[in-house]
């Protein structure tokens, strides 16, 4: 795994720029996305390009293994590494699907009102899944219950019926880049806002809402 891979990223102006990663850096990006997705209460921006590059890299590794000598110790080591990468990739995708199923009305509403140019939380496949899941849910509710109720009760507002992600839940994080003047809002009316600085390498337990932009930018890593 020594060749470099091309990955499109966002530059400071919001445009696309090509980022060249080694396979090791690519897997590190996948693991970071996986950890953030596991511990964030909301659905994060999709990392479909990382997923696609990792799948291509797995195909490449499988091709190398087929050409390798049988009985070579390196083959067993590479097979274990491939299984580890597959586990991380599958867990990442499952975690995202579980969030879509749990918060689908809010995710689709956020997508509908997303400003032009802002990265989408959903890949095209996830968007189709979320739409299909919502249609199936509405159909099931109608056939199982709503059609048997009085006409004035035959509609349900899924945005109100389905709980929103709890952005005020607390998360553990590790700081990758020093951050200054982070505003932490009070939990009660008796408390005041306060400002904190986050030193590189430090770890904190903090409300997700306060550091959500830092998760999106990669300045902090959820743990």
From TrEMBL:
InterPro entries: GINS_A, GINS_bundle-like_dom_sf, GINS_Sld5, SLD5_C, Sld5_GINS_A. GO terms for biological process: DNA-templated DNA replication; double-strand break repair via break-induced replication; inner cell mass cell proliferation. It comes from the Eukaryota. GO terms for cellular component: CMG complex; cytoplasm; GINS complex. It is found in: Chromosome; Nucleus. Keywords: Chromosome, DNA replication, Nucleus. Residues 165-223 form the DNA replication complex GINS protein SLD5 C-terminal domain. Residues 73-143 form the GINS subunit domain. It holds the Pfam family Sld5. Belongs to the GINS4/SLD5 family. Required for initiation of chromosomal DNA replication. Core component of CDC45-MCM-GINS (CMG) helicase, the molecular machine that unwinds template DNA during replication, and around which the replisome is built. This is DNA replication complex GINS protein SLD5. It comes from Catagonus wagneri (Chacoan peccary).
